[in-house]
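Q: Structure for this?
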Amino acid sequence: MPHADSPASFLDAPTGFRSWLLTHDHKRIGILYAIAITAFFFVGGAAAVLIRTELATPQGDVLTADGYNEAFTVHGVVMVWFFLIPSIPSVLGNILLPLMLGARDLAFPRLNLASWYLYALGGIFTIACLIAGGADTGWTFYTPFSTLFSNSNVLLVVVGVFIVGFSSILTGLNFIVTIHSLRAPGMHWFRMPLFAWTMYATSLVMILATPVLSMTLVLIGLERVFGVGIFDPSLGGDPLLFQHLFWFYSHPAVYIMVLPAMGVVSEIIPCFVRKRIFGYRFMIYSIMAIAIVGFFVWGHHMFVSGQSMYAGIVFSLLSFVVAIPSAIKVFNWTATLYKGSISFEAPMLYALGFVGLFLLGGLTGLFLAATALDVHLTDTYFVVAHFHYIMVGGAVMAYMGGIHFWWPKVTGRLYPEAWARFAAILMFFGFNFTFLPQFVLGFLGMPRRYHAYDPEFGLLNAFSSGGAAVLATAYLLPLGYLSWSLFYGARSPANPWAASGLEWQTSSPPPTHNFLETPRVDGGPYEYSPSQAEAEAEAEAEASA
Amino acid sequence: MIGFDRLMTGASNIADDVDAMFFAMVALCGFVLLAVTVTLVLFSVRYRRGSQADRSGDHSRHLGVELTWTLVPAVLFIGIFAWSIGLFAKIQTMPKEATSIYVVAKQWMWKVQHADGRREVNQLHIPVGKPVRLTMTSQDVIHSFFVPAFRIKQDVLPNRYTQMWFKPEKTGEFRLYCAEFCGTDHALMRGRVVVMEPAAYALWADAAGTDSLAQQGEALFRQLGCSGCHGPAATVHAPDLAGLYGKPVPLSDGSTVTADARYLRDSILLPSKQVAAGYPDIMPTFQNQIDEEDVIALTAYIQSLDPNPNPDPDPRQEIVDAPR
Amino acid sequence: MSRAISPAEPFDDIEQQSGAATFGMWVFLATEVLFFGVLFAAYAYCRVQDPQGFVLASRHTDLLLGGIESVILLLSAAAAAWATALLRRDENRASANLLWGAAGLGALFMALHLYEYWKDYGEGLVPGLRFTYTGLHAQTVERFYALYYAMTLVHLLHLLIGIVLLAFYAREVRRQRIGAAYATPVMCVALYWDFVDMVWIFLFPMLYLLDRS
């Protein structure tokens, strides 16, 4: 409990609705984001429930064909732009970045609030699209279907995504300037926590890739409204130009989604292994390499699109190159466990789950990078499984891990550990039952975006839908026990995990201005000692014996 | 599991190669996954808090280890890349002798035209053991011709010809799917490829009795009035089409193009786009009168007008799309 | 005239704030390069498909007006830069006048360009609204003008924002609310204005000067 003379926590003061909706406090803005993206997660999740219910049987008997097409479009648009991309950066990044750097806030607090309002406005347009009947183009908006043939509310969703893109860009700008300008005295670049490094790399990708998406969506809008013929082949335009422009953004976008997840995992593992991360510098080089090389691989989405064979060869090579730094990171996380002192609280379970599932997802990416295999596998369920392993098995698990790890810091409450571990394990198994069969389905030739399919694919699909039911349950559990903990959870001390990192040096929850005085840093991150942890554990065991 | 065997067996010349690579990757990636997972589990057990394992020393960096697991994956990846490129080149390189078949995709069906004039919808009958080259275009949006048993796939674009080739090596019926989302009934845009023994195929082909594609094109040529300007008795000054196919054509803007299928298609549907040098820009467009299949028939006819047919035609000179 | 300026949250001192604001503007301009980059890439792609058509289309742009607009914008950018320098020397009055001048010249550019749009409409060169050009390469000409409008409209939007900012800061400078002690906001606006000018320096030859020797 805070003392009478210590500043109030950022949650308690100032009070009132307006103080939240007009806040400049990065922590409050992070919470505003958390509420919004959770709502969108369940919208996207509802779409997923519809999809898997339809796919449980071979006949298209739950939704109409158009209804199914709208369902997977909503699922993709909402999950990519309104959940995955903002999740870790806009929630955890917003709350933690200044704390980790020893700053009182981000460089541009009002811009931060504007980012949230842009997110909300983009969300409103997307919900409006849903209410008006949805769009059926897929989240990829391929032309000429999206510009000339679709009779759905394409413009509404395009406007929504256009607006939310600016939220991304401004957040990235804010993070970059903050990291350059507001690090605490003594925290030079190679003393920053890896989470901050991933925020930096992610922000670079956000500011450089998102404008390309924005302008491409403008061109789609122009084409749809004015029929101008940039992508329309019957007017001499080129649908492949759209694909190049779209994927130039959308491939780096997947690194916007996964780099922050890697950052979260790099904070959790050292804490629960009580040991410095293995290969801190190599981890940094890998993070930057992924961000940079990731800009040059977009053509691997287009191997059978009609692009030239030579382009295919170049993109294939670069796709293999970008896999190397990811491999390094997986090995480094594993090596961190060597001679550590490991405990298995929920955040650690999520982090370990991430490593395994990201590894599987990444390895299957190698199949797709190989053009000869991709010819067969592209546009099948193999691809669907691959990216869900990275996005859900990877990014979502890491997000959950981060939520649990920093829950005491942000809310001042402890979550119920038993429930959290159970949910994590249930999520892991539910996820694998859902998506592992899809690799087989893809190899056997089941195409994507089919609401009805040949009966031979029925058994694996039924299995996958069963897994989805388990996964959905697993996602509802944290909603329940985390909300419960806000009111009835035990109060948390400042540093319940004895974690290193400046964010743990202030109270839980922190006061509005984060630190009573600006911290000074004179060492690197992850100052843990496994032997010390063992000694403390032994002492504790003896004391209670 | 019922049907798995049938679904999994490959039926084309490259299917075995693709499967070999696929399963080699499964083995390699499976091994890596297993190795890392087992290591994680072993470390988790051995170094769990309270275990009496040895934890001495600082093990947070080791350049040799780092470089090893940077370079070993790099080398492995380059190896996989090289293997893949060899196979990819095989998939992409059209053989000299291949039967040309034309495919027009439209929402939501596949329309096939054989050179002998036979037309099929959502079916493709071919003889086993002979390479087939598909030249494809779409009437509307992007589709994708996918035969899982052959392990091949190619997007089909509007206003463009794309090609793929394969050699079926097993008889039977194989699933054909559209693999690029194309609207409401994308999931229903399916068909079958029927691979027959040569004798059975000959019987099937003979039963048709239709005009060849070129003959169908000739009928269209007269029916649409093309011979009015391009025929020998024409009073209008229009380019002579005999022997035009595959030759260079100087254009009114000073550039030169090859009279390939794309050029001919544009000339019929968008005549003002590229006007032959020395000719007035007066050819009307036929965009609203004929569809893609008619264009293919006309192109086949014009191709047949070659007074000196090349005995060993370069397959790249036959109906081709933009350079690969 | 200059009083000690206290920094805004979360900065510790005014130098830190100034550095962050300037760096932030540069980062923002980097994103702007990517915005316009897409349109430039689309332009390049379409031009390679039919260079003849692009030349034909470019001949219908008004070279004289475009040239005058270029000069106006260059002068405007120079005025904004000079205004910043003067502000740093505590010459608020002159600085404000130059900022007003820069805004005014920007507005003049806008007016001239809107006049160009009006003329294009009359000549039937506005795709989607009134496009009557027929003949050789008509589709490419239409595509050229679609890109022309996309690029110049996006540019005009940026111009409008710049004019508003210049006018706003002209007022602030005149009322001594900004001075030599903290000239960074004006410097950032001038930097932005330079960028807007720079975009036009690329647009002008791409759109107006194709094969016009």
